Amino acid sequence: MTLSVEVKDLTIRYGDTVAVDRLTLRLAGGKIYGLLGRNGSGKTSVLSAVSAFRPATSGAVLVGDAEPFENAALTRQICFVRDRVDAQDTDRVTAVLRMARALRPNWDEEYAQALIERFRLPVRKRISGLSRGMKSALSVTLGLAARAPLTIFDESYLGMDAPSRYAFYDELLNDYMTHPRTIIVSTHLIEEVGSLFEEVVILDKGRLVAHEETEALRARGVAVTGPADTVAAFTEGRTVLGDQRLGGTRSTTIYGQLTDDERAKARYAGLDLGPVGLQDLFVHLTAEERP
Ligand SMILES: Nc1ncnc2c1ncn2[C@@H]1O[C@H](COP(=O)(O)OP(=O)(O)OP(=O)(O)O)[C@@H](O)[C@H]1O
């Protein structure tokens, strides 16, 4: 089972701060979405409203076809995972797992135990005795083993070391393949996790900047690689997103698409053309002053 998400004209205010500004967004069920945005762009606020952790100031949120706020039957189907554990500091890991087992209708105990082993979690310790990375690993364990039809990871792997993060990406993808559901991952580690996303949503200052399939987004620009002088001549006058040199070779990432004629000329000149990195595009699309 998967759940779609629809956000209609959503505004979230904290006093004078407008965190989300009339946002409209539709996410079909059964995909992995990346939610990107600079600090304070409203990601957590939107995700909190979708998960029923806070009401909208105005506008509407629908999960499936129902409003999640104060809807206990629906919120059991939504798992919102942060980098901390929603439990008392004095609780032991075993008690937190027991609670999740009782609350989550699709909980898979065998899978939870496999994840605990993979992340080397000390089950007898109290939450207060876990390192920051261990707390994150416990959170993602709860998120994965819950197999909720809508699962949201909000920078939930902060503090996890690189092997643990890659183990998480690996588990996320494999478990999603065997148990399809709707997954939203909010992250600043774009290059690291970007290959998992089927669609990418970019927010800036509480507004939607882009919502596209990852491949379509990456096709908004071109990475031109080849002999430094030839690359410089070919990319002159274009909007440059990134530039790298290694010896006589240069790779310049430009914004905008090339015509068939331009592509043919580039190849004739011995240049390689490739898609753009999500990170470069993200920086460009959320830059203070867009060219
Ligand atoms: N509880 C709160 N009280 C007051 N202002 C808040 C509160 N929560 C968020 N904000 C403000 O709302 C705006 C959006 O914050 P939000 O946490 O949704 O952004 P974010 O994109 O998740 O940021 P980050 O990437 O830094 O986690 C920011 O200006 C923030 O200061």
Automatic annotation (TrEMBL):
Database matches in InterPro entries: AAA+_ATPase (IPR003593), ABC_transporter-like_ATP-bd (IPR003439), ABC_Transporter_VariousFunc (IPR051782), P-loop_NTPase (IPR027417)
UniProt keyword annotation of Metal-binding present: no
Record keyword ATP-binding present: yes
Entry keyword set: ATP-binding, Nucleotide-binding, Transport
Entries under SUPFAM superfamilies matching the protein: P-loop containing nucleoside triphosphate hydrolases
ABC transporter domain location: 5-230
GO MF entry, a single one: ATP binding
Domain of life: Bacteria
Entry-linked Gene3D superfamilies: P-loop containing nucleotide triphosphate hydrolases (3.40.50.300)
Protein name (database record): ABC transporter
Organism: Phytohabitans flavus
